[in-house]
Amino acid sequence: MTEQTSKRVFVLGGARSGKSRFAEGLCTFSGLERHYVATGRAWDDEMRARIEQHKHDRGPLWQTHEEPLALVERLRQIDAAGRIVLVDCLTLWVTNLMMEEGRDMAGEAQALAGLLPQLKASVVLVSNEVGLGIVPENRMAREFRDHAGRLHQSIAASADEVYFVAAGLPLKMKG
């Protein structure tokens, strides 16, 4: 990824598959100014500790933006040529949106997928693949899986490259 050409990269995988580490590596090796958009919320002590550990692991060369809901607006704010933005992760963003009253999930997904080709910055988006397991037993979990699956399809369609990561090994699926 170079300063002259922005790229959209989508990285999918299961929990603890190595997808975030792989995505961070793509950003580091790009040589571009690194920005990290964290969508997670610190609801409890364990999550607070995880967030702090992630910040520590990334080090000082990343500018961190915490954005649990207004992802499209935040991407617009920090967009600039010569930057690479890592969004981690889309499934936490979907969870946050679902917890808010009256959010238009399809509209939010459409807005994000539509924005990506317009950005001057390169963007790497990370998400958990949740559609490979059994059908969830409760309605909210099924809706979450469905929202995430539809979002993943629209992001993959607009991405230049798509990777699936399992056991720390990336499989290039597109690009």
From TrEMBL:
Active site location: 54
Keywords, sorted A to Z: ATP-binding, Cobalamin biosynthesis, GTP-binding, Kinase, Nucleotide-binding, Nucleotidyltransferase, Transferase
Protein name (database record): Bifunctional adenosylcobalamin biosynthesis protein
Species assigned in the record: Allorhizobium taibaishanense
Catalytic reactions on record: adenosylcob(III)inamide + ATP = adenosylcob(III)inamide phosphate + ADP + H(+); adenosylcob(III)inamide phosphate + GTP + H(+) = adenosylcob(III)inamide-GDP + diphosphate; adenosylcob(III)inamide + GTP = adenosylcob(III)inamide phosphate + GDP + H(+)
Family statement: Belongs to the CobU/CobP family.
One MF annotation (Gene Ontology) recorded for this entry: GTP binding
Protein EC: 2.7.1.156, 2.7.7.62
Superkingdom of origin organism: Bacteria
Species lineage: Bacteria, Pseudomonadati, Pseudomonadota, Alphaproteobacteria, Hyphomicrobiales
Residues reported to bind GTP: 13-20, 38-40, 55-58, 66, 88
Coiled-coil region(s): none
CDD domains: CobU
GO BP, one annotated term: cobalamin biosynthetic process
InterPro entries, alphabetized: CobU/CobP (IPR003203), P-loop_NTPase (IPR027417)
SUPFAM superfamilies the record matches: P-loop containing nucleoside triphosphate hydrolases
Function as written in the Swiss-Prot or TrEMBL entry: Catalyzes ATP-dependent phosphorylation of adenosylcobinamide and addition of GMP to adenosylcobinamide phosphate.
Pathway annotation from the record: Cofactor biosynthesis; adenosylcobalamin biosynthesis; adenosylcobalamin from cob(II)yrinate a,c-diamide: step 5/7; Cofactor biosynthesis; adenosylcobalamin biosynthesis; adenosylcobalamin from cob(II)yrinate a,c-diamide: step 6/7
